[in-house]
Amino acid sequence: MDAKETVMALYQAYGSGDAARIGALLHDDVSWIAPPGNATQVAFGLGRAEDAGAPYGANTLRHADIVRFMAYNFARFFGAPRNEFRAIAAQGERVYVEHRLNATLPNGRAYVNDYCFAFEVSEGKVRAIREYMDTRGGWAQVFGAEEGRPLLAFVEGRPAA
């Protein structure tokens, strides 16, 4: 698979909730850097609103937590998710994906946000993920006028049905 095919395979695996399939597409030393203090991190108790600002390391997820988020936690937070892909561009080992995510949040609110992801692929696996989004818009949709607080616990494995 080329870099673009690898990234699109990761999106498909992400949507399946298959931890083994997701993990197989991620390099052992993969990192995912998202904007610090974003609403999803805060809602899972993985960050605080006051963390917002320049990336500093505490907002970086590694292999095991990326698999846990993609396989188990994403679908718990974003109900009936639908990605509308707008652009996918690849240059060598780098792939850029722009999409809009539509979903329903655990509190019943609608969620619509635009994202841009920059992926680095090495040896046929995703080695780095950098996420960009409208953090203020996401915050307003998740928490409204309420103070940001954990809404769900970040689970370590597939939750019981």
CATH class division:
Alpha Beta
Shape: globular
The sequence of SSEs as H and E is: HHEHEHEEEEH
Rounded to the nearest angstrom, the radius of gyration is 15 Å
Strand content: 35-45%
| Count of discrete structural domains | 1
Tally of extended strands? 6
Distance between the termini: 35 Å
Helix % is 25-40%
Quickly give the structural class: alpha+beta
Order of strands, widest sheet: 2-1-6-5-4-3
* Spans where pLDDT lies below 50 across 5 or more residues: none
Supply the number of helical segments. Answer: 5
CATH topology: Nuclear Transport Factor 2, Chain: A
Q: Brief description of this entry?
A:
The chain has helices spanning 3-16, 19-24, 39-43, 63-77, 135-143, and strands spanning 26-33, 60-62, 79-91, 94-104, 110-122, 125-133. The protein has 161 residues and is of the alpha+beta class. A six-stranded mixed beta sheet has the order 2-1-6-5-4-3.
